[in-house]
Amino acid sequence: MPRRLALVLSLLLLAGCTMNLRQVEGPDANAIPTTWPTQSLVFAARTADGVFVVDLGWGGADRALRRGLAQIGARPEDVTDVFVTHSHRDHIMAWPLVRHARFHMMAAEVPLFESTLAHADVPSRAVAAVRGDVGPWPGEVAVRSFSGDTTFVMGTDTIRAFVVPGHTAGSTAYLYRGVLFAGDAISRPYHTGFGPGMGIFTEDRARNHAELVSLFERLRPYDVRWVCTAHAKCARPDERFIRKVLR
Ligand SMILES: [Zn+2]
């Protein structure tokens, strides 16, 4: 097999692997990968005060979301809140299924989410040119925005939002029950693991890096047991992991 083909195939295989998703699941929480080979992650959880999801996947997301919700005894109409790590179209595809819910995101992400501003990165522009835009128009869903780190209380649970702009203007990480959903702020080329925001997809790599340095400082008071990327890979945030991400 030519070396280049072997490399591409092994990258695809690596990208297609999920990592440690079981570790962040429970009777009331489900990590749902969509879209082989890049495996956009949807995380769904039931709280005492409603069902929420982090991100909404890409190809096949509707079916995956229905199935994933059913595993925690919920239906799409039960979802009350959607927490958006960022609005790249490979992470919001199932939005029409939960259009009745409150969508939470950083204020700087809203125009990108609602298509009044185009994503600057080349792959997003290419996809939009070929497939058209698949996001909602302004007013199609109820958006609640925030401009800095903030906290949401759902029943006895807390979801903490940490803003990490750079991959997109309003990228945000969410911490829930010791699991940090970092979006694409932490992602390696071809989504094969962990690193500082993937090259061509990241609008401002220097800012992404600076925000990650700040993020790990801001996370110090909290017990973060796992960090998951938006491409379905989770790892323990030990020193080696942090060195890799901040290199
Ligand atoms: Zn992205």
Summarize the SSE layout with pairings.
Blueprint: H1 3-16, E1 29-34, E2 40-47, E3 50-54, H2 61-70, E4 79-83, E5 102-106, H3 110-113, H4 122-131, E6 142-146, E7 150-154, E8 157-163, E9 172-176, E10 179-181, H5 205-218, E11 226-228, E12 234-235, H6 239-245
Parallel strand pairs: 3-4, 4-5, 5-6, 10-11
Antiparallel strand pairs: 1-2, 2-3, 7-8, 8-9, 9-10, 11-12
The structure holds zinc ion.
User: What overall form do the CA principal axes indicate?
Assistant: globular
Discrete helix count: 6
User: Any low-confidence stretches, pLDDT <50, length ≥5?
Assistant: none
The percent range for strand residues is 15-25%
Enumerate the distinct ligands. zinc ion
Task: Write up this protein.
With 247 residues, this protein is α/β, with parallel strands linked by helices. It has one domain: 4-Layer Sandwich (Metallo-beta-lactamase, Chain A), CATH 3.60.15.10. It has six helices and twelve strands. It has helices spanning 3-16, 61-70, 110-113, 122-131, 205-218, 239-245, and strands at 29-34, 40-47, 50-54, 79-83, 102-106, 142-146, 150-154, 157-163, 172-176, 179-181, 226-228, 234-235. The chain has a six-stranded mixed beta sheet, covered by helices on one side. The longest helix is centred in the first third of the chain and has 14 residues, at 3-16. It is globular and about 45 Å long. It starts with a helix and ends with a helix. The mean pLDDT is 89. Zinc ion binds next to loops.
Structure summary:
With 247 residues, the chain is an alpha/beta fold. It contains 6 helices and 12 strands. The protein has a 6-stranded mixed beta sheet with strand order 1-2-3-4-5-6, with helices on one face.
